[in-house]
């Protein structure tokens, strides 16, 4: 089955983005009705994070999220198969010169890359311009795992690390220097996490970002990929390097990261990865949410 999926992505990637987008949206809306558990997780997350919205508004937002998720699945074929020239046309990087100056000056950089739906194509585009380091989680399906690895490593000299070798090797790579394409905003359990608010809800938040920044002498540069409507492509938005980071407390640093994330999510709420059980780990004594 996975080989059929890869073959379909290869066929579809030849189409212009203006045709891929509606195909992806249709697939996503179909999945909204088929994958009931993930629909329930998404609606639960939206209820917790956007209590000011009505039930009808949250369901509309959930459908749009699935439509865009379908787009991201279909358009992944571009990351796996399209030429460098085509990817450059489809995905642009805002403020690329700013990042290049940091790298050329020998400054270690952590690209704070939240889980927005465009991050895979954004990562592929960044790999065309920069030799990066990132942490790679192996997939259960061997075929999909092979193609995901291929998509993330096909340009330049990319360094993909397993989670169990991430800290020391990541620090070394950042000091070469390689920008660290880092995705820290998922619930990976209580280990190395602190509970800080995310949209007002206590969330187990990884405390590794300030640790990486301190050990590597790195600056944190926000890196968010925005999907544009229809066939207009994607834009990787690079923000100003964070000042005074890390701060005096790990909790304060984690709170700052979540506050930044909330601000960006509010600019494109349907594009965040709501199908993830962001609140699965609860503080001691609190009931389960999902």
Q: How would you describe this structure to a colleague?
A:
This protein is an alpha/beta fold and about 290 residues long. The protein is built from 12 helices and 9 strands. Strands 1-9-8-2-5-3-4 form a 7-stranded mixed β-sheet, sandwiched between helices. It is globular. The two termini are about 30 Å apart. The mean pLDDT is about 95.
Task: Using brief descriptors, characterize the structure shown.
alpha/beta, 9 strands, 16% strand
Average pLDDT, rounded to a whole number, is 93
Strands of the widest sheet, in order across it, are 1-9-8-2-5-3-4
Q: Radius of gyration over alpha carbons?
A: 19 Å
Secondary-structure element order, as H and E?
HHHHHHEHEHEHEHEEEHEEH
> How many H/I helices?
12
Sequence stretches where pLDDT stays below 50 over 5 or more residues: none
Helical content, roughly? 40-55%
Largest sheet: 7 strands, mixed
Question: What fraction of residues sit in β-strands?
Answer: 15-25%
Kindly state the number of beta strands.
Answer: 9
Q: How many angstroms separate the termini?
A: 29 Å
Describe the global form: globular
Based on secondary structure, the structural category is alpha/beta
């Amino acid at each position: 089955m996975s080989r059929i999926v890869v073959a379909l992505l290869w066929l579809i990637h030849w189409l212009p983005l203006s045709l891929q987008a509606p195909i992806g949206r249709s697939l996503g809306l179909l999945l909204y009705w088929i994958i009931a558990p993930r629909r329930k997780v998404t609606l639960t997350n939206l209820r917790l994070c956007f209590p000011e919205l009505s039930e009808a508004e949250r369901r509309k937002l959930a459908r749009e999220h699935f439509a865009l998720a379908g787009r991201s699945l279909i358009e992944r074929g571009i990351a796996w198969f399209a030429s460098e020239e085509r990817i450059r046309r489809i995905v642009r990087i805002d403020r690329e010169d700013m990042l290049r100056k940091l790298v050329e000056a020998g400054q270690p950089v952590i690209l704070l890359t939240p889980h927005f739906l465009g991050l895979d194509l954004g990562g592929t585009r960044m790999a065309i311009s920069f030799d990066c380091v990132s942490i790679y989680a192996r997939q259960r399906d061997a075929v999909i795992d092979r193609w995901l690895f291929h998509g993330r490593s096909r340009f330049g000299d990319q360094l993909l690390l397993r989670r169990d070798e991430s800290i020391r090797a990541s620090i070394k790579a950042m000091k070469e220097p390689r920008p660290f394409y880092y995705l820290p905003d998922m619930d990976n359990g209580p280990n190395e996490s602190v509970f800080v608010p995310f949209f007002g809800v206590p969330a187990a938040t990884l405390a590794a970002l300030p640790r990486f920044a301190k050990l590597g002498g790195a600056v944190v540069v926000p890196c968010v990929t925005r999907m544009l409507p229809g066939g207009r492509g994607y834009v990787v938005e690079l923000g100003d390097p964070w000042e005074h980071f890390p701060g005096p407390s790990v909790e304060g640093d984690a709170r700052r990261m979540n506050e930044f994330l909330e601000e960006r999510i509010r600019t494109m709420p349907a594009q965040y990865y709501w199908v993830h059980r962001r609140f699965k780990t609860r503080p001691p004594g609190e009931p389960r949410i999902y």
